[in-house]
Amino acid sequence: MRKYIIAGNWKMFKTRGEAINFLLQVSDKLPSSSLVDTVICAQAPVLRDLVKRQGDNLRIGAQNVHYKDSGAYTGETSAILLQELGVTYVIIGHSERRAMFNETDETVNLKIKQALAYDLLPIVCVGESLEVRENGTTNEFVKNQVVKALDGISENDVLNLVFAYEPIWAIGTGKTATPEIAEETCKAIRNAIADVYNEEVAQKVRIQYGGSVNPQNIDELLSQEDIDGALIGGASLDPDKFLSMVNSALNK
Ligand code: 13P
What we know:
Layout: E1 5-9, H1 16-26, E2 37-41, H2 47-51, E3 59-62, H3 79-85, E4 89-92, H4 95-100, H5 105-117, E5 121-126, H6 130-135, H7 138-149, H8 155-158, E6 162-165, H9 179-196, H10 199-204, E7 206-210, H11 218-222, E8 229-232, H12 239-250
Parallel strand pairs: 1-2, 1-8, 2-3, 3-4, 4-5, 5-6, 6-7, 7-8
1,3-dihydroxyacetonephosphate (13P) binds near residues 172 and 213.
């Protein structure tokens, strides 16, 4: 019932030429969005070039947005500008931004509201550190992030966002969460959404897994009941790997 969503988070990789080349290589090989949603989230200065090549089968996303309309916020990007450029998605609350750029549950919530106000679809990242995982408090930790992210978000609006469960210890480390661990926490996220709204709404919200996803492990992850896609870093930089992971979703 929930359509898969496969998203590449390119982080601070790829030159303009490399980014455009990637799109040229994959564009005519990607399936229609009626079958699977496919997204590439790139650095802000290249978004305009990529949006020009955006189609039904590939949407473009930003990796961050500010929560104010405009102002003296040097180095930040406004939602109004992203909307004007034609960007479709925006990643909010990635653990790298939480750890290195002071992003908090409160700013994540404000950014979600701002993105939705400008018709940008938020990909909201949550996930625990190794310390939290080893303490055995992962589900409580992640549920708390979800509840705070959703504060003041209407039932209609929550259907326009996607959650990405990204355990910090699995990002860029080659250590993927086992499908069982990923499923357990994605289910906890769905339960948290049901607590905020209701079960019917929770069943409609898509939840991705992210953290060392690659063409070899994606099948088993996507087979889990509460995993509706993947947010992929390193492996999304390679067009063949990206296509292979989209095909895994297509063939489910
Ligand atoms: P990797 O796939 O490189 O582990 O990165 C995951 C991630 O952070 C995606 O947002």
